[in-house]
Amino acid sequence: MSLFSCALGLCYLVPSWVRNALATNSDIWRLLVGGKVLMGFEITVSDSAQEKFFYHGFGAGGLTFVFGFENAIAKTTSLVSGITAISTKEATGWYGYSFWIPAGLCAASFCVAVGYIIFERFVIPKQYRLLSGRALVLANQGL
User: Fold this and answer.
1) Which tens digit of pLDDT belongs to each residue from 4-22?
2) Which residues, 6+ apart, have CB-to-CB distance to 110 below 8 Å?
């Protein structure tokens, strides 16, 4: 994970906030769709950060359980957020909260990913860090 990954993470966070701010506050719904498309480009970056985090925490033996559990939580969260959107609008009188709450969770997820990158760079000793495929090849070649 690198600073480049953090920059790509902003490609997920910024469109989320922009689409929610503009689409919900000014009724420009094309921005909602455009922001969703831009967010799709960054999903692989956040997934690779999560997978690396899972491997550090659970090792190779527990990855199947962890990926299944994470997928179940993601699907459950998606289902619950879809079900509660109308209830949220009726309770608050504004549908925008259905967009802003996930945007806040996206920001929290981004902060956790950045925190993990910092943790990996400065806290974990070098001998315990996971190496990328490129780093392994360079280490084996003696470069």
Assistant:
1) 666 766 766 776 677 677 7
2) 9, 10, 12, 13, 46
CA distance 118 to 116: 5
pTM above 0.85, yes or no: no
Closest C-alpha among 105, 101, 109, 107 to residue 49 = 109
Other CB atoms within 10 Å distance of the CB of residue 120: 17
Residue with tokens 């690779």: 48
The encoded tokens of residue 42 equal: 């960054």
Per-residue pLDDT tens over the stretch 40-63? 666 656 666 667 767 767 777 777
Distance separating alpha carbons of residues 50 and 143, to the nearest angstrom: 29
Q: Is the dihedral of CA 70, 74, 75, 80 positive or negative?
A: positive
Write the burial class of residue 1 (CB in 10 Å: 0-12 exposed, 13-18 middle, 19+ buried).
buried
